[in-house]
Amino acid sequence: MDLKEWFASRQKRRDNPEVKQPLTTEEYCALWTQCFQCRELLYTRDLRGNLFVCPKCQYHFRISALDRIEQMVDEESFQELDAGLCSADPLQFVDTDPYPKRQEEATRKSGLKEAVVTGVGKILGRTAAIGVMDFGHFGGSMGSVVGEKVARLIEHAQKNKLPLIIISSSGGARMQEGILSLMQMAKTSSVLKSFSDAGLLYISVLTEPTYGGVTASFAMLGDLIIAEPGARIGFAGRRVIEQTIRQKLPADFQTAEYLFKHGQVDMVVERVKLAEVLAHLIDFHSGKRGDKVQTTQASGVKTSASRA
Prior knowledge:
The chain is an alpha/beta fold. It has two domains: 1-61, no CATH class; 62-307, 2-enoyl-CoA Hydratase, Chain A, domain 1 (Alpha-Beta Complex), CATH 3.90.226.10. Helix content is 39%, strand content 17%. The chain has helices at residues 3-15, 25-30, 44-49, 65-72, 99-110, 144-159, 178-197, 212-215, 238-245, 256-261, 271-286, 304-307, and strands at residues 32-34, 41-43, 79-81, 116-123, 126-133, 164-170, 202-210, 224-227, 267-269, 301-303. The chain has an eight-stranded mixed beta sheet with strand order 3-4-5-6-7-8-9-10, sandwiched between helices. The longest helix has 20 residues, at 178-197. The protein is globular and about 75 Å long. The termini are far apart.
């Protein structure tokens, strides 16, 4: 086949939708995902069906806020709150790019206006106020809008006497908003104190990764703190700590399992079990102590009791 015939055949396939088109490079790459931990090449459709958990080594991939809601919340039960809030540029911050341009790029990549999605939904039939952070939007950083949305969610949960669940995934405070981002630590912590005084349940779920100002505020203030297997959790990063104390840290330092061993988290729960465990904890707190509550020490769930 000469070049003219080859171009003609390509044009024929392009013009005829019934003829199967060859995959583009992007489409081909989207079919496969390589595990970060074991380097296994996984079929993306099967990985999605397994809730983005590697079937070979059980590595829990980072997932978006929308994927998390789809996995955890009952179908068509989630009602978003404060969807229109978006950050301003109070400091007119510019590094290599102006802050508004960075916001636009983050929105283009994540499909979200901000790094947290908040709302009310049902988890296996139990109504709860739910906040889900998205590391894919600006590294899940906490700016003034993230803090405001979290604070409003807590106030909504308190007003309506709902259990509160916040799933964190963040690199910390957003440097482009300076002191305004750091103020969100105090604001969210203060609102959580009122929520706690009202005797309501707050469950904090820590996922890969949770660092900085989020860890130093609402992420570690839960009545119950749950972590996903392998999630890295801390304030400063490993390298910064090693350079500061001039000592080599353990290989598993700042992992969910390390924090569980040292009593800083209450449970390590596999993603496939998370919705079930949350529903059982909500029932337990509300006094509905059925037999199923006892299953929280089943395979895939490590609890404080099992540690003891």
